[in-house]
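Chain particulars:
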Amino acid sequence: MNEIKWQRRVELWGEGFSYHDHIRWDEGLDQSNSGAAAVLYQAGFMQAKPSTNSEWLFKIPQQEIDANPFISESDQN
């Protein structure tokens, strides 16, 4: 699986798939080698995995839930 992930990163570099791959594979983001100073971005260097952090997911807007009778709060990602 590591080889598949590596080849996908190489082939799709710069295409914008990384975010969704991290969600799909339930991996956290390690930004410790981003070049930014740790003092400035302490909370952002290692983020929780998508399965434990709801901020990774795209929420259904409340207006859509209110307008569609077939969608409820329990349908949130």
Notes: The chain has one domain: 2-75. Residues 2-75 form one domain. Residues 28 and 58 are 17 Å apart (CA to CA). The mean pLDDT is 76.
